[in-house]
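Now for my pick.
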Amino acid sequence: MKKKSMANLTLNNKSLEKYFGMLRGLDNLSKKKLIIKLTESLEIKEEKVDLRSLFGAWEDDKDSDEIIKEIRESRVEKAEDLGFE
């Protein structure tokens, strides 16, 4: 399973100094743990996807009538007039 990646945030030197000022007071063990986490976040891991996992037959215990009923019941009527006339 692929992890979702977060957007990258770039900090200027002033912001980095503020963060460092807050982190400076941490004990050595906490600093080491933070260093490890930051270092691990730099490593780019390529995950290989088995193409066979991306296709196949629909697997469900419901019969087609039940699935159709669920689809119809989940539909939402829009009362808004879009004005395409």
